User: Which sequence fits this backbone?
């Protein structure tokens, strides 16, 4: 309390002081009598209970005034409530904290009137004012990477980082403790000779393992195991046979029932592999192979793709069919546009159920796609990055007669104006983070009105 | 939130002291004077991701016990388990054993007079345990320390002479041990996953001498034995607490009839007390005279428990449990002051400790 | 309309909220990298738990210096509170402390039907508000008690966080219905507590007082110091009567030696002091340390006020002033009277911050301003007059940079809930908005409708839920607070559980403690399949990392039969396959683990049968009783019958039990049993031809001896069952001769029950 803090501690220092006022009242000298007269004149009760007009006048002259209005009851807009005002005025004046009984009565009336008035007018204010802006609390370095690191990947819990190096070796960093953000290198081993382009963790239900895509386009799986002879170590458990074309991207999906692996190849083909044995990552079976086109009949021979991006539907339910979205950056327009593939149980095949591009943009090369986690939205949310910018798509949940899902582009966001490297949704699917060749991280959000906008930019600075 | 069972004038006193750091484990240290108490904390600071051992000094004479930091040393890893043994030679220098998640056991000596914590030695990690050391216990005379781990190893560290360990047993991961307690200078009991209780005797090598069949949950639930206690006066009975609120007393002499004190299997009022993990159990020496009289040798002594769902309570065979504390957060560990059993300290999940003084 | 009016004229600076978002360019934040220098090869991003974003900055190759690392990872925590004011540990303490009140209120809200104006509902709300408030109050009660250091106490008073004042503002205007009759006095107290917060940015009465207090020690005759009188009138203007009176009593005329000469002067001082200490105040309670006379009802107060004013006027025009020859005193006191008489000019002269002027107006110019306690219900009625006055004061005392509390206060006064909410979330962060929503919805219908209206644009949730989700996400980004997020998530009807599942899936379950605590959360929220999945992950992790025991345990808990069966197959390769093998001891523990589980053990249940069989067999080895032998034989048969018995065990089992097969005191197995074993043996010989057959490492003659034993046993069994069907005897004879002296012609002998194949097989 300020009053306490200012309680003049040194008051006692001036010791010679009287404790007034009592002691000063002692009737000693005639002066003191005069003093008492003074006190009396001031504090004698006046006959008139209140101040006279000329008092008021004198106030007026000296530019004083006393506003005797009982605050509210004279405010102009009470007239709005003609019907109520008398009862309410009395209500206000006589009100004490105790009587709540009156409340429900004029509560409803007023409430209705009030909202009739204010709702439309306020609408625009609300939409703007009620958003959840971001702000950076702190940024702290948590680990430094070995020389020649080309790509990194965090595991499901963010406790392990796998880094692929230019010399084709893989480095794994671990934190000793779930609460700690200090990471140390726990193992480093050679995967192959050519540089590692991409590392992807296998879902944790299948152990601590990663898939490595190397510059020569080979795909191999490495797993951390403990054998009685030597302690923990990483061993290669599968190397997918190097076909004529290179692997561009790979993603694991549907961790629940049976592990699936989707690989996109430079010839525009998509291969889906299935794990045969839940406990061994050695045994894989090619489940399907197709191209990223809507009409399944047409085939494109000499397609050459620079990059591909795959994103599984993060939903973990058995009921929902596993599905993923995939887009290419190739010289063959029909392959490019991102398409949502869903597994059709009845015919045991993959079907394209949606295409995420406007008719005029179908041939745009796709940099990245990212499927947002859905914690209860009635629709799915997918982000697609092309050279036109980042577009946010709503994907309907129930298919139309011919099995297609309704799609709607809700936003086209320009920011990176250059290649987009990565996009990732946060765990609630509310914020999208993206990086691009402009060398910054951008964060995107929708406000309460459903308008997507760039919320923040993180620029690396030494 | 403290729930005080009886609003008597001389009722339970509870004081919560935020520590602004996570408490991994805590213990009372032996008294050196009647005016002061010393508390040993194993803390973890997430902001700096450092763990440390601290001795706090508190003066119970005051109405509101205040604690002040006395000494602190940083530990190489988080502490999984903490044990203290008074040293015969220097009563003011108790021995401290701390098991780490990184798989080593560290030994310190606290100098309560000169207000310092001194690192004595640590067991060579090479081949000691792989992975966390889940439980340790110091023998009564502080000459030996037994350690168990999820890797299924049981090791004995000798504190006298050459400070090295010897492997008692290695199940090579087929069994995962979670807790251990000395029963006598040569016997100890280990708790394992699947509610396994094993009785070991150093004189008989090659494995446990007695296995406690885990049928006492009636197969309703399986779980982990988080904590074991054995009363010095009744070395044949071992008290075990673990998953789904189960507390059981196992008398080696009647292995077929375990006594369920709490938990799903108990099937009486007791099981409604706690349904979540029981993190620690200790025999509660602080009982009213009446109880001492009518507690026959066949009867299990009262025990104190703390649980994940925030209960600190005293349970006794065939009696209603007495809640000392009911917190909105987990109570991860507690300790009863041996010399003055009315005093209890416990560590709350929310970075604070509570000091209880019982009437 | 409220909220629009504020956008006019020079108030733009004050209400930045409503029109900030369309024109707002994204904020740019520097990402501090230490070891890496541009040019950068690549940025890669990953969301950690909650709202923590990990940015991995990779050094580009072409700038190859050897000492340089390849890159570094920076973790960024996203939140919308302007951090720094409160250290993390303090934030966590507030977060922990507010869980219980929040949860309690939610449960009560669910129990009570929605009639919000129910009496005890209000008590619940007030209890909630008080508990939260106490939480914000003294930042470190325990620590200050732990370290007995008065400084901390002082410090605490000097720098309260802006959370508490914000909370109290909303409390007094929205929730505390008893205070609403005396809002001005509440504001006065509020300012008294928190004026210091504004001192930082601009001059305030508080700042002046503090400054003067420091001088005070040195000054001898305070009354000669103009500062003294300025401070006096300033303090009086904002109604810190106790301070004023204390200061007055420092007046030199109180000194013994002075008393004689300066009695009139002293009288005047004392008169003013008395008047001040008798100032009527319209409020329910008056703390003892505060001066003035307290009146609860407005009529009484008005009467007292008139009387008091009368007295002041009296004193003002009394003749004694002429006799007071100390000039400063006369002027100073007169000035104070002017303040008490409500001279607007003087007031604006002696106050600094507009809020101070505002308070002084309430005190001396518009003493009868009463906000009816019903204003809450009839938003936006009620605060108009207060708001217009506030505007007037802000005109008179324009401020360069606005404190965030002002934004909140204006929002409240202009009765624009949107602004209030926006200010809350923007200036005070997710914690504040999440917990203030309870208070707002309880107090204001407008707020309630605004906050509970479902919005398709944000996925069909309401604002309340949105803010809870955001707060929960911030909680989950810290390893210590993530497990209180569920409390807030479960209070979210639509998307709470979804987010909770995602949160749980991100927990590092290979850590024992984390796993157990996560499972507990699942148990409390009925997320069985989630906990199963986590146990699965843990089980697989342990299995791959050599902790077979834990692996089997967790997979059993997860009822994951598929994996258990696979594990069983692999385990059998480890199991020693002969009785003599000591290593089998190790398995005891594992078998205990499987124990009498009602839960599935998958293929592992074989281990138990196997163990039992070995036990009995061992007994046979040692002490020989016919019963033991019979038991062992039974065990053997049941094992061989059991489909879950892996093939590679058949031969070893039989080999181990040779002793049983050719048992001295007659056969232990009857014909049918022996046939069963023979069939198994045949299966085995067929299986041998298939690829991937695991051959048991046994002495080469093992198979032969087993066959022989079985044959012998069969024969003796047939003899046992004996002299029934005719013809069987003939067979028996040449069968036996066939065995006994293993002669070629025995092969030619055809047997009824023993078909050639079998014969050939036996030999």
Assistant:
């Amino acid at each position: 309390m300020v009053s306490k803090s200012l309680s003049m501690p040194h008051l006692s220092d001036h010791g010679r002081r009287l404790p007034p006022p009592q002691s000063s009242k002692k009737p000693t000298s005639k002066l003191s009598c005069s003093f008492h007269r003074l006190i009396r004149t001031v504090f004698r009760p006046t006959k008139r209970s209140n101040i006279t007009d000329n008092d008021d006048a004198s106030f007026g002259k000296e530019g004083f005034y006393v506003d005797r209005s009982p605050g509210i009851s004279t405010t102009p807009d009470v007239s709005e409530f003609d019907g109520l005002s008398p009862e309410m005025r009395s209500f206000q004046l006589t009100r004490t904290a105790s009587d709540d009984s009156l409340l429900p009565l004029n509560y409803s009336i007023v409430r209705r009137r009030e909202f009739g008035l204010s709702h439309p007018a306020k609408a625009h204010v609300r939409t703007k004012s009620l958003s959840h802006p971001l702000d950076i609390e702190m940024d702290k370095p948590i680990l430094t990477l070995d020389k020649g690191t080309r790509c990194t990947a965090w595991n499901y819990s963010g406790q392990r980082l796998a880094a692929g190096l230019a010399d084709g070796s893989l480095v794994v960093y671990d934190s000793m403790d779930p609460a700690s953000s200090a990471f140390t290198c726990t193992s480093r081993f050679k995967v192959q000779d050519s540089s590692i382009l991409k590392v992807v963790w296998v879902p944790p239900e299948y152990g601590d393992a990663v898939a490595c895509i190397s510059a020569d386009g080979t795909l191999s799986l490495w797993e951390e195991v403990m054998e009685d002879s030597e302690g923990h170590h990483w061993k290669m458990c599968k190397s997918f046979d190097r076909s004529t074309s290179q692997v561009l991207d790979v993603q694991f999906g549907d961790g629940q029932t049976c592990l699936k692996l989707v690989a996109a190849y430079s010839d525009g083909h998509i291969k889906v592999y299935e794990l045969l044995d839940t406990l061994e990552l050695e045994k894989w079976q090619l489940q399907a192979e197709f191209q990223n086109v809507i009409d399944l009949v047409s085939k494109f021979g000499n397609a050459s793709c620079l990059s591909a991006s795959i994103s599984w539907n993060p939903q973990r339910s058995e009921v929902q069919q596993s599905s993923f979205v995939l887009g290419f950056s190739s010289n063959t327009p029909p392959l490019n546009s991102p398409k949502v593939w869903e597994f059709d149980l009845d015919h045991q095949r993959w079907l394209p159920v949606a295409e995420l591009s406007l008719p005029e943009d179908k041939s745009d090369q796709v940099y990245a796609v990212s499927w947002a986690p859905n914690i209860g939205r009635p629709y799915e949310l997918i982000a697609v990055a092309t050279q036109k910018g980042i577009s946010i798509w709503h994907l309907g949940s129930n298919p139309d007669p011919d099995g297609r899902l309704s799609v709607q582009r809700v936003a086209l966001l320009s920011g990176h104006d250059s290649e987009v490297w990565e996009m990732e949704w946060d765990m609630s699917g509310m914020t999208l983070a993206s990086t691009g060749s402009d060398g910054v991280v951008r964060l995107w959000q929708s406000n309460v009105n459903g308008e997507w906008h760039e919320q923040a930019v993180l620029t690396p600075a030494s | 939130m403290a729930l005080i069972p009886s609003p008597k004038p001389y009722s339970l006193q509870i004081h919560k002291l935020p520590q602004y750091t996570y408490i991994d484990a805590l213990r009372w240290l032996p008294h050196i004077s009647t005016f002061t108490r010393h508390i040993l904390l194993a803390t973890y600071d997430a902001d700096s991701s450092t763990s440390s051992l601290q001795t706090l000094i508190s003066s119970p004479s005051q109405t509101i016990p205040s604690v002040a930091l006395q000494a602190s040393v940083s530990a190489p890893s988080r502490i999984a388990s903490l044990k203290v043994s008074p040293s015969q030679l220097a009563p003011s220098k108790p021995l401290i054993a701390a098991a780490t998640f990184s798989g080593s056991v560290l030994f310190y000596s606290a100098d309560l007079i000169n207000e310092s914590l001194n690192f004595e030695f640590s067991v060579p990690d090479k081949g000691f345990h792989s992975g966390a050391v889940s439980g340790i216990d110091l023998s009564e005379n502080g000459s030996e320390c037994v350690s168990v781990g999820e890797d299924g190893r049981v090791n004995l560290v000798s504190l006298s002479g050459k400070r090295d360990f010897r492997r008692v047993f290695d199940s090579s991961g087929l069994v995962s041990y979670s807790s251990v307690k000395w029963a006598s200078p040569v016997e100890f009991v280990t708790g394992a996953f699947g509610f396994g209780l094993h009785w070991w005797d150093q004189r008989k090598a090659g494995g446990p001498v007695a296995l406690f069949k885990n049928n006492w949950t009636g197969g309703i639930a399986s779980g982990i034995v988080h904590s074991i206690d054995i009363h010095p006066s009744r070395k044949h009975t071992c008290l075990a607490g673990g998953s789904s609120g189960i507390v059981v007393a196992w008398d080696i002499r009647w292995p077929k009839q375990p006594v369920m004190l709490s938990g799903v299997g108990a099937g009486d009022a007791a099981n409604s007390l706690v349904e979540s993990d029981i993190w620690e159990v200790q025999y509660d020496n602080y009982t009213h005279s009446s109880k001492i009289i009518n507690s026959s040798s066949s009867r299990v002594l009262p025990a104190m428990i703390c649980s994940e769902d925030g209960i600190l309570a005293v349970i006794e065979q065939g009696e209603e449990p007495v809640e000392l504390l009911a917190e909105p957060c987990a109570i991860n560990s507690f300790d009863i002051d041996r010399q003055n059993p009315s005093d209890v300290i416990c560590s709350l999940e929310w970075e604070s400790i509570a000091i209880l003084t019982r009437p | 309309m409220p909220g629009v009016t504020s956008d006019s004229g020079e108030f733009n600076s004050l209400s930045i909220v409503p029109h900030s978002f369309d024109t707002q360019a994204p904020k740019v934040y520097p990402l501090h990298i230490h070891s890496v220098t541009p040019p950068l090869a690549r940025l890669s991003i990953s969301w950690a738990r909650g709202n923590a974003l990990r940015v991995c900055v990779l050094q580009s190759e072409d700038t190859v210096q050897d000492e340089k690392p390849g890159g570094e990872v920076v973790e960024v925590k996203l939140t919308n509170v302007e951090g720094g004011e409160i250290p993390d540990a303090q934030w966590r303490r507030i977060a922990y402390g507010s869980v219980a009140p929040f949860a309690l209120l939610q449960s009560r809200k669910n129990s009570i039907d929605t009639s919000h104006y129910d009496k005890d509902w209000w008590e619940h709300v007030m209890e909630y508000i008080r508990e939260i408030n106490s939480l914000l109050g003294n930042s470190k009660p325990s620590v200050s008690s732990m370290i007995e250091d008065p400084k901390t106490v002082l410090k605490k008073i000097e720098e309260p966080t802006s959370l508490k004042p914000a909370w109290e503002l909303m409390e007094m205007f929205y929730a505390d219905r008893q205070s609403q009759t005396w809002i001005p006095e509440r504001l006065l107290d509020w300012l008294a507590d928190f004026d210091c917060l504004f001192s930082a940015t601009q001059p305030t009465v508080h700042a002046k007082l503090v400054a003067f207090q420091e001088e005070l020690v040195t000054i001898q005759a305070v009354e000669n110091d103009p500062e003294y009188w300025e401070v006096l009138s300033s303090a009086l203007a904002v109604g810190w009567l106790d301070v004023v009176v204390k200061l007055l009593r420092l007046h030199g005329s109180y000194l013994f030696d002075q008393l004689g000469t300066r009695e009139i002067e002293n009288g005047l001082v004392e008169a003013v002091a008395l008047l001040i200490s008798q100032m009527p105040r319209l409020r329910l309670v008056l703390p003892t340390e505060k001066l003035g006379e307290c009146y609860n009802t407005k009529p009484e107060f008005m009467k007292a006020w008139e009387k008091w004013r009368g007295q002041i006027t009296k004193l003002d025009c009394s003749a004694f002033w002429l006799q007071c020859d100390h000039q400063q005193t006369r002027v100073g006191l007169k000035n104070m009277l002017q303040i008490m008489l409500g001279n607007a000019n003087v007031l604006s002269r002696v106050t600094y911050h507009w809020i101070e002027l505002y308070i002084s107006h309430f005190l001396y110019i518009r003493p009868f301003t009463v906000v009816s306690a019903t204003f809450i219900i009839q938003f936006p009625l009620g605060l108009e007059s207060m708001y217009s006055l506030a505007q007037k004061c802000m005109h008179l005392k324009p401020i360069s940079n606005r404190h965030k509390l002002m934004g909140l206060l204006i929002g409240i006064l202009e009765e624009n809930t949107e602004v209030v909410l926006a200010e809350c979330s923007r200036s005070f962060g997710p914690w504040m908005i999440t917990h203030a929503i309870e208070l707002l919805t309880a107090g204001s219908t407008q707020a309630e409708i605004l906050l509970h209206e479902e919005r398709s644009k944000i996925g069909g949730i309401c604002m309340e839920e949105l803010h809870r989700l955001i707060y929960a996400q911030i909680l989950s980004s810290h390893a210590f607070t993530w497990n209180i997020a569920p409390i807030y998530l479960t209070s979210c009807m639509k998307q709470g559980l979804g987010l909770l599942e995602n949160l749980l899936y991100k927990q590092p379950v290979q850590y024992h403690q984390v796993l157990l605590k996560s499972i507990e959360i699942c148990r409390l929220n009925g997320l069985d399949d989630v906990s199963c999945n986590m146990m699965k992950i843990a089980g697989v992790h342990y299995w791959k990392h050599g902790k077979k025991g834990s692996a089997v345990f967790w997979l059993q808990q997860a009822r994951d039969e598929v994996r258990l069966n696979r594990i069983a197959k692999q385990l059998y390769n480890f199991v020693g396959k002969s009785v003599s093998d000591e290593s089998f001891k190790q398995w005891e523990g594992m078998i205990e683990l499987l124990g009498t589980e009602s839960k599935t053990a998958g293929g592992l249940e074989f281990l138990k049968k196997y163990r039992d069989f070995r036990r009995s067999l061992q007994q046979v080895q040692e002490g020989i009783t016919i019963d033991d032998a019979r038991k062992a034989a039974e065990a053997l048969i049941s094992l061989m019958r059991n489909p879950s018995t892996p093939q590679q065990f058949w031969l070893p089992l039989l080999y181990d039990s040779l002793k049983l097969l050719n048992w001295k005191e007659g056969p232990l197995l009857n014909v049918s049993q022996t046939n069963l074993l023979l069939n198994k043996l045949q299966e085995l010989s067929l299986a041998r031809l298939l690829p991937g057959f695991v051959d048991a490492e046994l002495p080469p003659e093992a198979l032969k001896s087993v066959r022989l034993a079985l044959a012998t046993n069969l024969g003796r069994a047939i003899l046992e069952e004996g002299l029934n069907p005719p013809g069987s005897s003939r067979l028996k004879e040449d069968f036996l001769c066939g065995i006994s002296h293993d002669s070629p012609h025995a092969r030619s002998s055809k047997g009824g029950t023993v078909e050639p194949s079998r014969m050939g097989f036996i030999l």
Q: What stands out?
A: The radius of gyration of chain A is 37 Å.
